[in-house]
Design goal:
elongated, single chain, 141 residues, mainly alpha, two-stranded antiparallel ribbon
């Protein structure tokens, strides 16, 4: 496998076959947008997680006989709506990241460039508000 500059490619599936420059440019635009949205999805998951954590109230001193809605402690639950949404979004993020990796592994320079530039612009647009320096949940691109 070597990097090449051609435009006769099968991308991911048999039905996504390009053999013209127009097909290549259209595919590059679609891949660019997919890579950009992948970065947006990563930020959106982090944003939802921060919102869920911020909405939780931590009460260390609660009288068990006088529990009201105001001082009721919220707990994380594996079956909570927030966790289910995070899980589904994590699965979607994994699928998109592996699709981008497989597109990159076509070794077509133009498609690789679309992946890299889309991810770069996506990070530029969505990652500037990122609150963590190192993301331990990062997936491969």
């Amino acid at each position: 496998m070597t990097f090449h500059f051609g435009y006769d490619e099968v991308i991911l599936f048999d039905f996504w076959k390009i053999s013209t420059i127009g097909g290549l440019i259209g595919s590059m635009i679609g891949i660019f947008i997919l890579a950009m949205l992948y970065e947006g999805l990563k930020y959106f998951r982090e944003h939802l997680f921060r919102q869920a954590i911020a909405s939780m109230q931590y009460c260390a001193n609660v009288d068990k006989n006088n529990i009201t809605d105001e001082n009721k402690q919220m707990r994380m639950s594996m079956l909570s709506k927030d966790h289910v949404i995070q899980t589904l979004m994590h699965m979607l993020q994994m699928i998109v990241s592996y699709l981008l990796m497989l597109i990159f592994m076509t070794y077509n320079v133009w498609l690789c460039l679309a992946c890299v530039l889309g991810a770069g612009l996506g990070y530029f647009l969505f990652g500037w508000r990122k609150s963590v320096v190192v993301d331990i949940t990062e997936h491969c691109h």
